[in-house]
Specification:
The protein has a single domain, classed as Umud Fragment, subunit A. The chain has about 180 residues and is of the alpha+beta class. It is elongated, with a radius of gyration of 19 Å. The strands form three sheets. The chain has a seven-stranded antiparallel beta sheet. It has a four-stranded antiparallel beta sheet with strand order 7-6-5-10, with no helix packed on it. A two-stranded antiparallel ribbon has the order 8-9. Its EC number is 3.4.21.89. It catalyses: Cleavage of hydrophobic, N-terminal signal or leader sequences from secreted and periplasmic proteins. It is a single-pass type II membrane protein. Pfam families: Peptidase_S26.
Length: about 180
């Protein structure tokens, strides 16, 4: 009987620790739509680290979940940080004048002769865009089918829910690195 009491106490403690971790440190998120393909797919279940950015800065290429408005959260890739200059020219991304290799797009980039990421204008500014202090420029990986900073503008850093750490469903797509 002592053996079972120890086991029951251990299981209860493990469940309580899991609940605390889930409630305060991580959030579960379901991907809706195709804007992050081929990195994330509609219906993928993600584990989002809610406290990471309390200790560290956001980095370019991080995949984040953020509050788009009071009802909707979006998942996108961070392209530009405060002070960065963003430009897309001839289907190539430039940050601060340097070409950014986006090999994660290769799987989806069609070979149909059409541009995958159009040169874009934001809030009447053509060409190079500067990211304001306290904000980020985000884009979906599926550049032809993504509602992102190209259409709704910059996002406030304070709107970030967290960084995508794990894709845990479906199990066949289990992953922890998204680059």
């Amino acid at each position: 009987m002592k053996k079972y009491k120890h086991l029951i106490r251990t299981v209860i403690l493990a469940v309580l620790v899991a609940i605390v971790f889930r409630a305060y440190f991580f959030a579960s998120y379901v991907v809706e739509g195709e804007s992050m393909e081929p990195t994330l797919y509609d219906g993928n279940l993600l584990m989002v680290n809610k406290v990471l950015y309390d200790w560290t800065d956001v980095h370019r290429q991080d995949i984040i979940v953020f509050h788009y408005n009071n009802e909707d959260d979006y998942v996108k890739r961070v392209i530009g940080l405060p002070g960065d200059h963003i430009a897309v020219k001839d289907d190539r991304l430039y940050v601060n004048g340097e070409f950014v290799e986006e090999d994660y797009l290769d799987e989806l980039r069609p070979n149909d002769g059409r541009v995958f990421t159009n040169d874009f204008t934001l809030e009447g500014v053509t060409g190079r865009i500067e990211v304001p202090e306290g904000e980020l420029f985000v884009m979906g990986d599926n550049r032809r089918d993504s509602l992102d900073s190209r259409s709704f503008g910059f996002i406030d850093i304070q709107s970030i829910v967290g960084k995508v750490e794990v894709r845990y469903w479906p199990m066949s797509q289990l992953g922890m690195k998204f680059r």
